[in-house]
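I trust your eye. Have a critical look at both lines of this record:
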Amino acid sequence: MRHWIAITACLCVAGCGGLRLNIIDSAYQRPSNVAVYFTVDTATGDPVTGLEADDFRIYEDGTIVSVAESQQTIVNPEVAAEHYTLVLVDMSGSVSESDQVPLIEAATQQLTSQLADHQRVAIYAFDGSEDIHRITPFTQSEGAASAGAGRLSGFRPRDPSTNLHGAVVAAITELDSALERSRTPLRFGTVVVFTDGTDRASRVSADEMSDAIENSPYDFFAIGVGDEIDEGVLGNVGREGYVMVDDTEAIDAAFQRIGERILRMTQRYYLLSYCSPARAGMHTVTVEALADGASGSVSYEFDAEGFGPNCNSERPPPFDTSQGGATPRARQRRDRGQRFEIRAEAVVE
């Protein structure tokens, strides 16, 4: 007889329909470089990942541009963009004094290791205090992130209450500060919140937290465990997606599922560059994406005055670096997050 945990994950997938492309930034420079940085989503808002240069068609003024002649390519987006994820872990008295801490620690280590190869990750804890507590600063080192998560078991709350609303607002402020220091032209942030209960401290109201989320440029995901958590609150925090965990054995799977979603959200960004055949005047470039029988497009105007030969399409684009802080969102935020179902069930054979 064997016992194990069977993890099942259910997620609404996109049906048939068009693709949605949103421009994040665009640039052109001599000799004839044109670059467009954009996202690709399904009609229902799910990220479209894994597209290659030949999955796009480029048109100038309605006429298709030759792939070979234009050196059409996808440039590594890391030359122009950085992604930051702040993991905010509930370490109030109900958590820190429970038997969940080793599971939470291991799940946080898994999540940070999952993300650290692709973006900067930081871990913060919160309790009933006004401020959140830094466990590890933003890092792209998998080892440093994992080591930081390993310090959660030694955390002792200053205040055993739960300041969930205030912690989310404070996390936004921390992300603001981190992205202000970045010198990369395009900067994106994500907040992942783990909690086992609703706000008890009442330092910040639910409306104040909702307004802070709504007005921020960041993506928000939430993981809730236990009977005390209110799904309405969790959906309000996790605007891009949330998980309700009924069985603590599924905590690791919940963190992993959210990590996969964050990576997919990151991988929906594309930096498409090409060498324009235009040599003067204003032109409209249209980028069309094709994936699984669906398509979508986005357009951008550029000035080809002074354009000429000897273009290298892999040259990094001159995106504006003068604007500090996070890059504005390219799509409308949901009023409430999408629930990801993750269950753990004991299976006997």
Remarks:
- Confidence is low (pLDDT under 50) at residues 1-17, 343-349.
- The longest strand covers residues 19-29.
